[in-house]
What we know:
The protein has helices at residues 22-31, 48-59, 86-89, 97-106, 125-133, 164-174, 190-201, 233-245, 261-270, 307-314, 335-339, 370-382, 393-396, 402-408, and strands at residues 4-7, 13-17, 39-42, 63-68, 71-75, 108-112, 137-141, 144-148, 156-158, 180-184, 205-207, 213-217, 226-228, 249-253, 273-276, 280-284, 294-296, 320-325, 344-348, 351-355, 364-366, 386-390, 412-415. By secondary structure, it is of the alpha+beta class. The strands form six sheets. A four-stranded mixed beta sheet has the order 21-22-1-23. It has a four-stranded mixed beta sheet with strand order 2-14-16-15. Helix 8 (233-245) packs parallel to helix 12. It is globular, with a radius of gyration of 21 Å. Ligand EPZ binds next to helix 1, helix 5, helix 6 and helix 12.
Amino acid sequence: MGRFIVEGGFSLKGEVKINGSKNAALAIIPATILSNGPCLLKNLPNISDVKLSFEILTKMGAKIKKQDEHTVLIDNTTINCNEVPFELAMKMRASYYYLGALLTRFKEANVAMPGGCNFGVRPINLHLKGFKMLGANYEIDAGIIHLKAKELVGGKIYFDVVSVGATINILLAAVKAKGVTIIENAAKEPHIVDLANFLNSMGANIIGAGTNVIKIKGVESLNSSSYTIIPDQIEAGSYMAMAAVTRGEILIRDVTLKHLESILNKMETIGVKIKKYDSSVFVSCNCELNKADVTSQAYPGFPTDMQPQITAVLTFAKGTSIITEGIWANRFQYVGELCRMGALITVDGKVAVVEGKQTLKAAPVTACDLRAGAALVIAALGAQGKSEIENVSYIERGYENIVGKLKDLGAVIEKV
Ligand code: EPZ
């Protein structure tokens, strides 16, 4: 799984280029299954979850040509199977997007139940409710979801919980269904809008993405498209957190400022100075960090995928901060690892209370998931001494070349 050795105490200075959004890529790559010709995807992040997506498509018969590290031509016209291999589907929760894409392409889909992450059970009842509403039947047998439909007919679906995955899956299943589909209480994340824009660039008829009501008018066919993925707002926020704990200054390039509003707002409360440009933001911090209260919620609220990272920052702040996890049942598993570095955090269910401290002490720690791993890197950069971080393959699922980017910013970090 690999380890990072990080020596803390060095102020990060310089600039970092933000890559394409992991969660937009993981939805748009399966969507290419719906095209009647090859699709060119640009600004894809070069991360293991994207490589796994290519492995899944290739196994299904697709032809994939890498033009460069971030640009890929995907020809899915040769796909001849409606199932995702079990051993691959189990590696990544987002493999369930193939349910919606394969249902539209073949009127049948067979995909393994998604592996849970360790921040609680991750149900898919809303996805299945949406598929049923469109006319599909399903059964779950030996951990595989078997989905079938004679015909997909649009209708109205109301999600009682805002779900990114369910919204994406129903977009994929409704885009060529007969008639009109309305999704109410839809998720509004930037990657939902990016998927809708990609599908519309192929000839789909989707309006309202980014609001809580999305209307999809089924079309006959979807064509080849060349599309550039949006920047990853979580990667950008993670580098802001690193600037804060190291009292550094970083120009964070190639971002979409609109997607960063809630993160920038919280960073300013903590005492990070922000200068905004067209597609970049300069963050600097040369003072003590202030405490802040954070509640993670659906977009445009503060993103749950930045909750571990902001908690790591607040362990260095003056005063007591309250962090409330508004989305996941159990997303504070990583706190134990921060406490091994001397952080003073108590967790009660969905609430963590952080007693800020001047500094943390390096320690051997273990990443338990992608964003928790990022939080450990942030804490190690701000701590005194050399920390060892285990299970860094979690981190590499969502952060392209994190060691190289951090070294360019003056961090002392090695992968062993
Ligand atoms: C996506 O997960 C992201 N993953 C997660 O990011 C992110 O934390 C999450 O959205 C929230 O923003 C990808 O995009 C690949 P949800 P997803 O469905 O779609 C409940 C990362 O680090 N729910 O929006 O699985 C669920 O339990 C990952 O990149 C149901 O009850 O999240 C949760 O409480 C970690 N029934 C809430 O909705 C369902 O059928 C939000 O989940 C589906 C979800």
